[in-house]
User: Fold this.
Amino acid sequence: MSARADRVVRTEQQRCPRRDENPVNSAHFSHADWWERGRWASTQQEADAEVAEMIAESPNVSSVGNLTWGYGGEQPRTCSYCGGIHPDDAIALIKAGWSVDATDKGYKRYLEPPGYRAYAESFWKVRAGDMSEAHRPPRVESPTPPVKLYVQHFNAEQIAAFNVVLKERAS
Ligand SMILES: [Zn+2]
Assistant:
């Protein structure tokens, strides 16, 4: 059993709406879809073990991104097929101060932990040679990576709730 499979808990069975976008991929992964909890490792050691496993299974893997959930609190449910967050959990995270970041795809957003955006901007400035901010390392609330959000998983009611929370926050 892999490190990830050991910690992931299935909550409810569902059918990922994104299967309809690519019937070939969908047929290839013909197993049932689930809302899962525990997508992220909870310690760096756990994350390192997972990376080592992924590289061993697929030597072409060169980058796997951040795997550690460092935010605290319970991890959100994510779709076993597309990795997108459960709509109700997305709304809860936004209420807890997470921000919503656009991507170049209309149906995709990233949810970022509080402090993440300021950290990323500062990081890239220093990286580009602008040392004006190097003396004050930004306070990072959490090393938790952006969480993917696919609007395909949202029904009309959940989209409405999502918009209400964002509007409340903006005012
Ligand atoms: Zn999905």
